[in-house]
Amino acid sequence: MGCGGYILSQQSARELLSLLKQYDKLIPVDHIVFKDYMMKFPDDIFQMLPALCIQDHLLAKRYNLENEHNNFSSFLEQDRNIRKGEYEYKAKNKMKRSLTHKIRREGLRPVIQIMKCFKVLARKLRGERLVKVTFK
User: Fold this and answer.
1) Is residue 55 within 8 Å of 30, Cβ to Cβ?
2) Residue 1: per-residue pLDDT
């Protein structure tokens, strides 16, 4: 089961979040959307055709790439594996940075921080402000 992508109205997002609060443990939102949410708000779900996005396994099946399921990496896969107890740290895949790269990165860090401060100051002087929007 999988949704792939969502477009939610603000009201639908509130309703979905209220349903999420009722769960004791973290489960994929797809399961909530296609079970509880669909039962409670059946008129709020629409499907787009053509689809908004495609899932990796469907793309692989379409082009006969059955063994290739890594076209789109999942941001959730590592969390799922940790919850299942299947996560192992793979240091061999970590890119080794050279000493000159590390020195350059650390040398530029204060310059970048100062530039960010100037950007924030310039915004304030122009009367601009950033507002954090919270959903209740």
Assistant:
1) no
2) 44
Query: Does residue 62 lie within any of the structural domains?
Result: no
In a domain, 116, yes or no: yes
> CA 66, 76, 24 angle in degrees (round to 5)?
125
Q: How many domains does the chain have?
A: 1
Q: How far apart are CA 35 and CA 104, in angstroms?
A: 52
Query: Is residue 114 included in any domain, yes or no?
Result: yes
Q: DSSP label at 21?
A: T
Burial of 37 (0-12, 13-18, 19+ CB in 10 A): buried
Rounded CA separation 28/95 (Å): 31
Q: Report the predicted TM-score, pTM, of the whole model to 2 decimal places.
A: 0.39
pLDDT of residue 36: 81
**Which domain, by its residues, includes 102?**
95-128
Q: Is the pLDDT of residue 60 over 60?
A: yes
Structure-block tokens of residue 104: 């350059």
For residue 118, being part of any structural domain is answered with yes
- Integer-rounded Cα radius of gyration of the chain: 22
Assign 128 a pLDDT band (cuts: 50, 70, 90). Answer: confident
